[in-house]
Amino acid sequence: MLICMQSTSVRIDGETHEELKRLADELGTTVGRTVSLAVRALRQDRIGQQLAQPLRDDETAGSMLTSR
C-alpha cells in the first residue's frame, strides 16, 4: 500500500537547507523527516520550560484542597 502524505513548501535560506541536508544524512533520513523531528524537539523543549516554572498559588495542593 502506498501512503502519500500531503506536503507544502517552506522557504529557508541556503545555509539552513545545507545544514538540514547534513543532519538528515547523519540521521539516515529525509530532510522532511528531519524538519518533523526538529519541530517535535522544539515543542518538547517549550513544554519542558513551561513545566519547569513554579506552580501558581491556585495550582498548589493546599489551594486545591481548600477550593472544594
In short:
By secondary structure, the chain is mainly α. The chain contains 3 helices and no strands.
Molecular structure report:
With 68 residues, the chain is mainly α. The protein is 60% helix and 0% strand. The mean pLDDT is 89.
Sum up the structure in keywords.
single chain; 68 residues; mainly alpha; 60% helix; elongated
Structural class label? mainly alpha
Using DSSP, what is the number of strands? Answer: 0
Shape: elongated
Radius of gyration, in angstroms, nearest whole number: 20 Å
β content, as a range? under 5%
Q: Taking all residues together, what is the mean pLDDT?
A: 89
Number of helices: 3
Assembly state: single chain
Order of helices and strands: HHH
Largest sheet: none
Topology overview:
Blueprint: H1 14-27, H2 31-51, H3 61-66
Helix pairs in contact: 1-2
